[in-house]
Amino acid sequence: xxxxxxxxxxxxxxxxxxxxxxxxxxxxxxxxxxxxxxxxxxxxxxxxxxxxxxxxxxxxxxxxxxxxxxxxxxxxxxxxxxxxxxxxxxxxxxxxxxxxxxxxxxxxxxxxxxxxxxxxxxxxxxxxxxxxxxxxxxxxxxxxxxxxxxxxxxxxxxxxxxxxxxxxxxxxxxxxxxxxxxxxxxxxxxxxxxxxxxxxxxxxxxxxxxxxxxxxxxxxxxxxxxxxxxxxxxxxxxxxxxxxxxxxxxxxxxxxxxxxxxxxxxxxxxxxxxxxxxxxxxxxxxxxxxxxxxxxxxxxxxxxxxxxxxxxxxxxxxxxxxxxxxxxxxxxxxxxxxxxxxxxxxx
Length: 347
Hints:
Elements: E1 8-12, H1 18-27, E2 31-35, H2 43-47, E3 51-52, H3 56-60, E4 65-68, H4 73-81, H5 86-89, E5 95-98, H6 104-116, E6 120-123, E7 126-127, H7 129-135, E8 138-142, H8 146-149, H9 153-156, E9 160-165, H10 171-199, H11 204-212, H12 219-230, H13 239-255, H14 261-278, H15 293-299, H16 318-323, H17 328-332
Parallel strand pairs: 1-2, 1-4, 2-3, 4-5, 5-6, 8-9
Antiparallel strand pairs: 7-8
Helix pairs in contact: 1-7, 10-12, 10-13, 10-14, 11-12, 13-14
């Protein structure tokens, strides 16, 4: 049985992806309450009729369906599993649906904790990017059966056009990580191809158009690399988040005793991009790894910061990740080092 349109819905995390998804739910007539750590990001939704809650737990109170779209597994864990988290604050029979790309094991833990308390939870990461979120055409990757999801399908369909069911909690996350491996491979392959075209004196846009009409085409190539050619590095999906996704994919592969060397290389490159100042740029900024120094400097990257980078940090830990996403603070501290040409992999 489907839930009625007067069902109260809570949405936690109204960022690049969360806001347009929540807009579709609101436009479909659902009674929506929102929470975001940065309240300003929720203002457009409130102006359109959503209710504001002062915390995630307050947003969940009384809601029949609760969505989260967060950044990192630690944030998901804190939001769901703490004393005042969503599982404790939500009502019996509520559906808790995490749209974040996160840890498969954490998704299983959340599901099991909810079942004990007569609540329902499943992982449902999405793909389709900011454009798909705005158009309401996202693909949903669900760690649940169709029967399990049936009561909330009308709400899910307000912002999606395709749903894939992977039957068990955590499987949606694993499938999404497989998707992210391909996203990174397509981005980096396209970036390398454009770098070779430029160095060889070919027009990059012409080469891109040619590849897009052949077997080398991909959505990353068609939708993101034209932005890179034009110098537009604004985020639809941030490098810091793709880096996190690749780290999670590598962890899953390690648990299954599988070597995935291409993904290891992709992680290394996005890790580098994050550490030199590209954390909050869009993923099309991967093309800057193959540009000359003047171009990278104009874009706001600084290879000198790579000397100060620590060992790879835990991809679950949002607070630690944020410490490397603001390189300007290192410059102000006076600890800047001089970059050597060996640091840039393009040399």
